[in-house]
């Protein structure tokens, strides 16, 4: 699709402003009613899906040109997809998140990129990771871990650590925990270590579609050569890339997030708990595991009209609106842990507030990214929880950094941390 | 003409550099496409409201005052808007400063003893309702739904909606206003102006509420309202609303003292009689002919789609062939929705019995299909929160209301055949041309019992089209022109489709004076507009508002 292909969407956007809020049915308070971090922080109408439709239309109609403000508007979006869920409460024929991604692609194609992105992308092209670390260190997180090394050894399941878990020393232990839990439960699991490459999901959301395609094709090729059938990851961004983006490039792997696998193993009795974890926690749904974690459904078709002017699609087009994301498995895992009390925040599941780390915002706009995370921490605090638990290293890193800037009382855990504590 | 650098710098000093922009792309986000749902003009294909000269995000009444004073100094027009629903909130003229009030979004007070809330401009129906429910209260949510500003509706327009039966119009609920007048001075109207709290908009002292609001509200054309108090009403239900289900088919299983019914009637006379009887019996919390906005023939299929997360618009044709859906659609042909809210167990039982008696007397029924749990719990939530109101745009993205048979319920239902059927037949013929959605002619929706005696249905015949399609948009305009002519010939008066023609014209700018004067001069009460002109000359000497404020020259001057 090209940006121009969304022109009808731009003209059909009804400017209702639903994109700014969580679905209105779900509003429980004034404090936590906002859905889009971008407009909540920046305030001008331009910083929401409604505004970005207008900006895109203005650009393709030649009514405006690339200014610093336009670049800011386009990239200061976490591509969290909150707008997409709320818009689709009333609209069945708009795709705001896809249009926003296309707008980012266009700016990158036209060379209108942020210097912060350039640094990261240059490094990625050389070292295959987003973390500004040498690629040779990619397997260090698993040093000493008794696990098969793919492709030298064969395993039924590949664990993909992802850039953040691989290179963030404070978080590496969580990846080790995930592998150990799965292995101890009898899963024939292996890793690729230093041969693992960035999934490309985050650069896709920054607008670098070609880099994503290069990384994805390379990874698909490596997995196919290694005979991989099932991939497990603890990173929501990687999960989304493998589940939703890779199939369009021909990938046919079974994709699971660690929480899904743990949930299955616990329900099958293959993981048993022996210790209590007396803690009150709240769960943060990562955008790419939750509302964007819906399975890919291939579709090729065209718009048609019925009853004169009702816009539908031939054949029936899949509707991604967050309904079928991964919400229950992490909650079921947490609820199964003895002594653990799970309390919910106001904005959860498909209408969860973003952590602020996505879309290149963490890399380019640290203040905005941090503000978004602090908003979530405050929401977690309002539940009386002593810890915020998630299932994505990018969310967890952003929360840890944000908490370091506040009173520092809220703890941050990965779901796997708490499972480990209970065994 | 761009704003002078000097003026821009002075404005920047007031709001800070992060809260002002004259970037063309930002300004284009504050233009409304008149090829769309412009309420109620056009539609005009690919015509937009004028590009402003700058956008400002004031954060306080003091900042608003300073901005307005500066606008007076430089003789620059300004246009405030809070939630920007439809073309009303956008400039009518080039070189206008757009004030986006979204930074002023606080609920300042909820007084649960005296049943009112004090809010800033960007407080919306959903957030005020959610907070009010925590203390056993509720707020009126006006027709455009939970996404819209409560203050804008209460100060700048009439603010009627589905719960008007119980909670009145927004303008009736206005208990106090803080107003930055067009010259930049600050005025608090009513008891708040005397430092006595926000409980009465009409005193102590002389009431200025009527002057400030004008005939139907200022439409954002007379100064800036920065705060207001709104009356709240009892809410005998839980907080928060216990919402469940997958999007967009959210549902709420509410206690048994909250009930929703879709009522069907054998004739339009029975329909109208029931409206009077509901009003006379004093029952009901929300009453509205709501789902008919999807069209008489399509509403059964649409409620099935909307209450099932696996369905899309692509399912509509199959659903229309389903005998069960066809039966429900037929049962709903002459319908409206009603929510009963019992303040006690005895109250809800009494209300339900009274409703049954009304149905018995009129030959009406509770539509069985809508009592199926999924549809029941979906429609109950829908009617209480009004969080899906923009489903009126679901088909192709554009809609507007036409005809507008407002008045007593039997204004629309009397005649031979009933006026609603005459309108339906007229629209059905136009649906055959293909430019508007073929929905069965009758897209009439509107409130029940919103005025004393049970009147004011304000039936709008919703007409759906595709604003990205030139033929559809222009064909819709042709249809609306024909509706206006038809309505005048029938003596029904001008329809909703031309309601704002007096203000904004086909080029997106102010309506030419001779046309504007003719339209307002032919209105039912032109003297009100002559009076408003005097008010405007006194309070807005530099004419920094716009033509949405209705004024007429005095013929004697």
Task: Report helical residue fraction of chain B.
Answer: 25-40%
Q: Could you say what the CATH topology of the largest domain in chain B is called?
A: Vanillyl-alcohol Oxidase, Chain A, domain 3
Number of domains of chain B: 3
**Neighbour order of strands in the largest sheet of chain A:** 1-3-2-4-5
What kind of sheet is the major sheet of chain B? 7 strands, antiparallel
SS element count, helices of chain A: 18
What strand line-up does the widest sheet of chain B have?
17-14-16-15-19-20-18
Gap from first CA to last CA of chain A: 49 Å
Return the structural class of chain B. alpha+beta
What's the N-to-C terminus distance of chain B? Answer: 34 Å
Number of strands of chain A: 11
- How much of the sequence of chain A is in beta strands? 5-15%
SSE order of chain A, one letter for each helix or strand: HHHHHHHEEHHEHHEHEHEEEHEHHEHEH
Number of DSSP strand runs of chain B: 20
Over the alpha carbons, how many angstroms does the gyration radius of chain A reach?
Answer: 21 Å
What low-confidence regions of chain B span 5 or more consecutive residues with pLDDT below 50? Answer: none
The proportion of residues in beta strands of chain B is 15-25%
**Greatest interface (CB-CB under 8 A), with counts per chain:** A-B, 65 and 82 residues
Outline of chain A: globular
């Amino acid at each position: 699709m090209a940006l121009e292909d969304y022109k009808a969407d731009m003209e059909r956007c009804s400017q209702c402003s639903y994109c700014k809020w969580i679905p209105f049915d779900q509003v429980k308070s004034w404090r936590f009613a906002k859905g889009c971090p971008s407009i909540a922080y920046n305030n001008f109408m331009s910083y929401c899906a409604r505004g970005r439709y207008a900006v895109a239309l203005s650009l393709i109609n030649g009514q405006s040109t690339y200014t610093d403000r336009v670049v800011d508007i386009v990239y200061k979006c976490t591509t969290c997809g909150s707008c997409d869920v709320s818009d689709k409460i009333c609209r069945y024929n708009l795709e705001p998140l896809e249009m926003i991604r296309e707008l980012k692609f266009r700016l990158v194609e036209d060379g209108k990129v942020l210097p912060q992105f350039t640094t990261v992308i240059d490094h990625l092209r050389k070292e295959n990771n987003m973390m500004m670390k040498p690629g040779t260190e990619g397997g260090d997180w698993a040093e000493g871990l008794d696990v098969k090394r793919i492709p030298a050894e064969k395993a039924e399941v590949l664990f993909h650590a992802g850039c953040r878990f691989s290179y963030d020393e404070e978080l590496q232990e969580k990846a080790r925990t995930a592998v150990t839990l799965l292995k101890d439960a009898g899963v024939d699991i292996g890793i690729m270590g230093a041969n693992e490459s960035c999934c490309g999901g985050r650069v896709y959301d920054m607008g670098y579609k070609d880099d994503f395609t290069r990384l994805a094709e390379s990874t698909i090729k490596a997995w196919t050569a290694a005979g991989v059938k099932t991939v497990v990851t603890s990173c929501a961004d990687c999960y989304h890339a493998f589940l939703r983006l890779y199939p369009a490039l021909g990938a046919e792997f079974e994709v699971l997030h660690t929480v899904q696998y743990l949930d299955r193993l616990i329900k099958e009795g293959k993981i048993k708990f022996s210790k209590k974890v007396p803690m009150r926690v709240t769960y943060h749904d990562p955008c790419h595991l939750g509302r964007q974690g819906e399975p890919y459904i291939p579709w090729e078709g065209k718009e048609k009209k019925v009853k004169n002017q009702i816009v539908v699609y031939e054949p029936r087009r899949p509707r991604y609106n967050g309904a079928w994301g991964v919400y229950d498995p992490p909650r079921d895992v947490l609820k199964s842990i003895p002594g653990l009390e799970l309390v919910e925040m106001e904005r959860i599941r498909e209408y969860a507030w973003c952590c602020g780390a996505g879309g290149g915002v963490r890399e380019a706009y640290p203040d905005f990214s941090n503000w978004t995370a602090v908003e979530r921490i405050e929401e977690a605090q309002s539940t009386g929880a002593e810890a915020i638990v998630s299932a994505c290293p990018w969310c967890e890193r952003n929360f840890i950094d944000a908490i370091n800037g506040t009173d520092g009382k809220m703890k941050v855990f990965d779901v796997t941390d708490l499972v480990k504590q209970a065994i | 003409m761009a704003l002078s650098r000097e003026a821009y710098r002075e404005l920047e000093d007031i709001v800070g550099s992060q809260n002002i922009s004259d970037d063309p792309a930002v300004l284009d986000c504050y233009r409304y496409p008149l090829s769309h749902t412009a309420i109620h003009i056009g539609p005009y294909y690919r015509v937009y409201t004028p590009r402003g000269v700058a956008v400002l995000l004031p954060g306080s009444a003091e900042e608003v005052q300073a901005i307005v004073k500066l606008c007076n100094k430089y003789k620059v027009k300004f246009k405030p808007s809070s939630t920007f629903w439809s073309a009303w909130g956008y400039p009518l003229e080039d070189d206008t400063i757009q004030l986006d009030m979204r930074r002023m979004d606080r609920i300042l007070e909820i007084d649960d003893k005296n049943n009112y809330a004090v809010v800033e401009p960007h407080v919306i129906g959903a957030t005020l309702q959610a907070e009010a429910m925590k203390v056993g209260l509720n707020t009126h949510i006006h027709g455009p739904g939970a996404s819209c500003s409560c203050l804008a509706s209460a100060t700048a327009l009439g603010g009627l909606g589905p719960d008007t039966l119980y909670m009145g119009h927004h303008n009736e609920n206005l208990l106090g206003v803080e107003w930055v007048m067009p010259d930049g001075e600050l005025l608090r109207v009513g008891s708040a102006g005397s430092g006595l709290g926000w409980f009465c908009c009409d005193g102590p002292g002389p009431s200025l509420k009527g002057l400030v609001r004008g005939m139907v509200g200022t439409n954002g054309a007379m100064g800036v309202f920065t705060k207001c108090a709104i009356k709240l009403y009892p809410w005998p239900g839980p907080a928060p609303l216990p919402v469940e289900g997958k999007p967009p088919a959210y549902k709420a299983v509410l206690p048994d003292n909250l009930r929703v019914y879709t009522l069907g009637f054998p004739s339009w006379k029975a329909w109208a009689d029931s409206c009077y009887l509901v009003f006379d019996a004093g029952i009901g919390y929300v009453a509205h002919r709501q789902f008919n906005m999807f069209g008489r023939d399509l509403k059964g299929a649409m409620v099935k789609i909307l209450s099932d997360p696996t369905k899309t618009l692509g399912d509509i044709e199959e659903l229309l062939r389903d005998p069960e859906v066809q039966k429900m659609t037929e049962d709903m042909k002459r319908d409206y929705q009603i929510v009963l809210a019992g303040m006690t167990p005895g109250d809800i039982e009494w209300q339900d019995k009274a409703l049954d008696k009304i149905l018995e007397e009129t030959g009406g029924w509770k539509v069985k299909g809508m009592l199926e749990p999924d549809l029941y719990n979906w429609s109950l939530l829908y009617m209480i929160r009004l969080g899906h109101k923009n489903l009126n745009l679901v088909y192709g993205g554009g809609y507007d209301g036409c005809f507008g048979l407002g008045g007593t319920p039997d204004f629309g239902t009397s005649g031979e055949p009933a006026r609603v059927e005459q309108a339906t037949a007229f629209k059905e013929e136009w649906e055959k041309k293909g430019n508007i959605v073929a929905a069965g002619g009758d897209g009439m929706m509107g409130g029940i019992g919103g005025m004393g005696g049970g009147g004011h249905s304000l039936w709008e015949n919703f007409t759906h089209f595709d604003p990205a399609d030139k033929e559809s948009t222009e064909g819709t305009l042709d249809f609306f022109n024909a509706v206006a002519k038809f309505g005048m010939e029938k003596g029904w008066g001008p329809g909703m489709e031309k309601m704002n023609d007096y203000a904004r014209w086909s080029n997106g700018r102010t309506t030419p004076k001779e046309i504007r004067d003719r339209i307002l001069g032919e209105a039912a009460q032109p003297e009100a507009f002559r009076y408003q002109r005097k008010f405007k000359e006194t309070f807005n000497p530099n004419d920094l508002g716009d033509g949405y404020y209705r004024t007429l020259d005095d013929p004697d001057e």
